[in-house]
Amino acid sequence: MRFAEVSGPLLIEDIALDPRAIQILACGNTLRGDDGVGSRIAALLEASPPSEGMRVTFTAQLLPEHAELVSAADQVIFFDCSALTPAGTISVLPVEPAANSPTSFTHYLDPAMLLRLAQDLYGRTPAGATLITIGGESFEMNEELSSSVTAAIPEALDAVRLVCTAREHEKHQ
Question: Domain extents for the chain?
C-alpha cells in the first residue's frame, strides 16, 4: 500500500469526507474486567460492519487526537462501559457538542467535549452523534467480561445497527 506524501499540516479539507462515513470510537481498559467490552465490540464491528463506510477505532480513552476522526465523519458512535447503570443494561443517548471548549486536556475528555473540540479545531462536527453504553458489573483487574456484560453484547450490536439504520433513513427523507 502506498501513502500520499503530505507537505505541511493536514487540514480537514484534505480528508475525504464520505457522506456515509460512520466513525465508531469504542473505549475501555481491557485489563479492568467489563471496562474492556469496548474492545470486544470494536473487533466484532470490524469483522462484520453493519454499514458501508464504517470506520472503527478502539482506544483506552478519548483523546484530543480523536477530534480529527470525529470531524471527518457524518455520524459518530461512541461506545463505552458504564459504572452507573445496572449490569448488562444498554443505554443509547444522543450527544451534542459541549457548550464550552475544554479548558485543559488532562486524563478526561467526554464525547460532548470531543465534539466541541472537533468544531473548534476543524470547523465541523458530525451530523449525528450517539453514545451507547453497557452497564458493567466488575471492574476488577482481569481480562474477563462478566456474564451479564457478555450476554448484552448482541443487544449492544443491535443498538449500533439501529443507530446506523436510523441515520440512513434520516438522510433519505
Answer: 19-99+106-171
